[in-house]
Amino acid sequence: MGLERLDRLEREFPITVQTKAFILRPDIGSGGIPHSLRSGETPDGELAEPLRSHAKEAGLVMRRASKVSYTLPSLQATKYAAEKGAEIPFHRALYKAYWEEGLDLESRDVLMAKAKACGLDADELDARLNSDHYLAVVEQEYQEALDLGINGIPAFRMGPFLFTGAQPYEFFRQVAQRVLSRDTSER
């Protein structure tokens, strides 16, 4: 959802998007854990409000997967994709894999298939994952987020403003306008 809102902002304002890794559930180890239904969710994966409405407004398909994935491998794979200039397409592919297809983002098969679909070298990615090539970067970005007080995703920083959660697009617009008006007045 956040990516859709950022896409719209980029079309409307002169902004540049930079993503950072965030380990959403550091308590989950390799193998993941079964997903527990939250209040308002259904066993077939339907989300609770307000997430359901936000997804619908953004034109996104979102269903809860049966498992909460261990995401460190996918975060490292995304760093590889960024290095190769395919971060956003790869991120979208992983989003679809998890939220639409219910796939496990820890699975090497899933990561390799999505990498290939994005035109990336799956063998090179596999070697980088085997060596934990991007682990230090992912951990550093995670620590930076914690130091800023971020404890969940999506989280956004525009200029001096930091906010989290699935906010409506109008909220993003208002923050962007404030940042840009501040930048203009400081010149």
Structure description:
This protein has one domain (17-148): Glutaredoxin (3-Layer(aba) Sandwich). The chain contains eight helices and four strands. It has helices at 2-12, 51-58, 72-83, 87-100, 108-117, 122-130, 135-147, 169-185; strands at residues 33-34, 67-68, 155-158, 161-164. Strand 3 and strand 4 (161-164) form a beta hairpin. Helix 1 (2-12) crosses helix 8, helix 4 (87-100) packs across helix 5 and helix 5 (108-117) packs antiparallel against helix 6. The two termini are 33 Å apart. 22% of the residues are buried.
In short, what is this structure?
This protein has 187 residues and is mainly α. 50% of the residues lie in helices and 6% in strands.
Please give the structural blueprint.
Layout: H1 2-12, E1 33-34, H2 51-58, E2 67-68, H3 72-83, H4 87-100, H5 108-117, H6 122-130, H7 135-147, E3 155-158, E4 161-164, H8 169-185
Antiparallel strand pairs: 1-2, 3-4
Helix pairs in contact: 1-8, 3-4, 4-5, 5-6
